[in-house]
Records
---
Amino acid sequence: MNEIARLIEETPFVDTHEHLWEESMRVRGVAQGKDSKLPAPDLGMLFCHYTNSDLIVSGMPPKDMERVTEYELSPREKWALVAPFYERIRHTGYGRFVRETVRKLFDEDDLRDDNAESISEKLRKAVQPGFYRIVLRDFANVEYAQVNNLQAPVFMQTELPDLLCQDISTVPLSSGLDVKGLSKAFNKEVGSLKDWHELIDGCFARFGPRAIATKNQSAYARGLDYDEVSAEDAAPLFARHLQNPRRLTPAETKAVQDHLFHYCIDKATEYKLPVKLHTGYFAGHGGMPLHRVRANAGDACALLRAHPDARFDFFHIDYPYQDEMIAIAKHYPNAWVDMCWTWIINPAACVRFVKEFVTAAPVNKLLTFGGDVLPVELVPGHAAVARQGLAQAVSELVAENWVGAGEVETLIRRLMCGNAHELFDYERATSAWK
Ligand SMILES: [Zn+2]
């Protein structure tokens, strides 16, 4: 291992994006067996997030993929279903991070017919109180993780606040408006836009001090073209939405979302919370509308201009439009770019991206790691792929004389954790739980 790779191995990542289940839910899941809502704790767990998409796109029947995460088949039978397609995807980032996880956690070179059972056994046995800290700190060398928990409606009251900092999800509050769900969850009657503003205010007052950021992934459902719609214009539309959401035209629904989304950005700014936004590539398979996705970076410019005091963290480098994101990070003081998830979407593109970003935009604007997974076991594998890519990018920058050998250590610290320390207030968020 060369000096650069060694430094990167030893430097901890701040993990800026995960969807990790609460640890206790995982522990309970093992005890509940097939009554739990989680994938079975065996090798199927390693294929349940992202890699299942590559397998299906390569030709695996979706029904077979489902059986891989269920309880009926033995690990060996599951492997027999996966193996012919794993061979087709073993060189992709999604294939690679599963293999790296198997190397890191279970000390095996690869998945095979003769270790499907033993890997599954080790995986299940490891699910004990305290295992998140071991997997994240000891195996992934992650300082702490930032989690957008998908089980809580707006904010997860985590049991591990120092290890799993939590995002406030602004989706049900604004762009994926869920009046019914949230008025029930927060026991508040909502009869007007003013009431809804109060509900949003209440969420920020209650969760804001303990949150690490806000998160919104509505780019899966709509464009980032959030027009500035006044409360006066939005109020009658919101009132009609309360009577029957289906009576609003798509343009009227959009106007309500637009108003509320800007309102949430203002709240995030008030509470000094970075605004994390999904941009670019879609998880899953067979559904991505690339025409609309392509407009994400252009649409984001209006948001950046409308909220000069907000700090935006654009996720997934807007892949495959990452050039636009370099331009945004270079041009707008309030824009950061986040490589979460991206190392496994296209590792080689990420190597190019780091090199181009570092030589084009201020180096403090780049965040280089987030696993973006539900099963914690996949974080060490993802971090290994990211470390390999980062080592290649930095090595090439030095070899090509863009970065001096004496500048390497500072650069690596910035990219892996220093920039996140500057952007996210870990101290404030964690001390508020005490
Ligand atoms: Zn995510």
---
Amino acid sequence: MTTFSDLTGAVTKDIQTTLTAQEAFNWLVEGHDRFKSESPRERSRADMLDGAAGGQFPYAAVLGCIDSRAPIEQIFDAQIGDLFVARVAGNVVNPDVLGSLEYACKYAGTKVILILGHTSCGAVGAAWGGVEDGNITGLLAKIKPAVDTVQAKVGSDATPDNLNACVAENVHVACNALRAQSDILAGLEKDGTIVIAGGVYNVAKGEVEFLTKP
Ligand SMILES: [Zn+2]
């Protein structure tokens, strides 16, 4: 088994192929530990570009929010060729995101999908408050199921705790949407080819809380 610290350049096809879904998830966790301890793994830029020229073999795909305070690659100390990253406000699942993740896992060999919400999410806050405006309305409708679930338990006060509970619920909703709306992803998860996990990044602490782990 190749460990992340063995890498000198980009992830190769051989490495991606031999990596289990659990090991790929561990690489995300280890990368985040390096981010937290401010000890990034240095790799040769030239070697990574050499690898990139020959193809891409990312170990994980992350669906995150567009929020400027939650930069996916930095959070996981990832570089060229490491991650597929999809970003959309509120890290919601839509048909184009599903197609992107299906491609990442079925055709490009990625072993992990992580849905990453974050604290102080403006999209979740807007959905909580029932904002309607332009195309934002349709986006927020995808967060509404999480809002309804959490408000049924705690009421509609927009406290930080309630909003963060909604952020976490929205991650669970997105994980389940992958399974419910994609036969490809559900099948790959069922046969152990991939894992689907969720987490919440705390923008004040710079730390991810993994909600579900393989
Ligand atoms: Zn957000």
---
Amino acid sequence: MASLENATRTAEGVVVKGFVISPVVEQCAGCDRVRDFEGEQFCSSYPSPASKWAGGRCNFATHVKAQTTAAAKVNPLKASKRAAKGR
Ligand code: SF4
């Protein structure tokens, strides 16, 4: 795993370019943006991975495919009406 660039350990925590950063969360496991620093894993793209996952899938995750497919977007009510007409 690549190591985190420009990181320093300070009293407040690990700091990159003036930002205190938080370790990755378990959902980040396998993501290409995870970086190692002193035995802990951090995200190379976000200072706070937990907040990236708080509202659903992290939009920068490289290891999780988007869940929405064309089929999932079909409105089920309209689809059943269309099916009924076809009888
Ligand atoms: S890009 Fe998202 S999933 Fe990947 S390590 Fe960063 S916060 Fe985690």
---
Amino acid sequence: MGFELNDRVVALNVQLQAFMDKHIYPREHDWHEWCLDQDNLWVTPPWFDELRELAKAEGLWNLFLPREYAPWSPGLSNVEIAPLFETMSKVLWAQPVFNCNAPDRGNMEVLAKYGTEAQQKQWLDPLLAGEIRSAYAMTEPQVASSDATNMELEITRDGDEYVLNGRKWWTTGAINPRCKIMLVMGKSNPENPRHRQHSTILVPRDTPGITLVRPLRVFDSLHSPGGEAELLFENVRVPVTNMIKGEGCGFEIAQGRLGPGRFRVAAVFTCLT
Ligand SMILES: Cc1cc2nc3c(=O)[nH]c(=O)nc-3n(C[C@H](O)[C@H](O)[C@H](O)COP(=O)(O)OP(=O)(O)OC[C@H]3O[C@@H](n4cnc5c(N)ncnc54)[C@H](O)[C@@H]3O)c2cc1C
């Protein structure tokens, strides 16, 4: 199989490399100093948003979204995106400068692929514009979460609403004040076959009943400004229109989200090794 890059991708990669040289590498020290200061928890440095605006103005924005998601996509295929991910991922905090970071990119892809028009207008548009951030809450402390069919958070229908009860952890980004929406996976149809028991539902971050139990540490770091949260859901109510695709589609959505995510993580590791 040939992996020759076309002229557009080569030019984009040159442009991206120039952006890295001019704006990202010179700020590596500043970034780490900022993050080490406990007074800056969950906040990005003042220059960070300026870099995002610059990247957007240069068209180095949302490059992760493959061309089948027109009109939102900048029009590249997954193979074409790979070398751009290698370039931008040489510095670990650079992906969000280009609005290409997890968990937002996977969440945007889910909304583009499975969302209703109303869900896309309310949540996808501001995510693509970089105005808000999001989180994906699947993993639970009491089960082996490598297997998405093990999730136990209860999603119960009550009239025009769904009610959520359960616990999540390792929810990246949920502590950040810019996080406005979460995609939460839970069990809605325990009577169904194993791979049709779960659903993924949109839960605004400020919905009553969600408690931030604690920020988690990775190798003793809080990972600010991203961060991973343990969250408690107690009688959290959202309208039935917040269901993504339909009841029982949660496992399908988790796999649809993970596939491209793995591919882009592979591109990151390629550039670090
Ligand atoms: C930095 C970071 C960010 C994260 N962000 C998110 C996020 O945003 N949202 C989210 O939902 N989750 C997130 N996670 C959680 C991550 O997705 C889970 O840790 C992962 O899915 C593994 O689940 P687990 O921790 O329950 O491990 P387990 O499933 O308990 O696995 C533990 C070990 O057992 C092995 N194992 C499990 N089952 C079997 C089996 N049947 N047979 C053989 N071996 C097995 C696994 O391979 C692994 O080595 C994050 C984790 C980290 C570290």
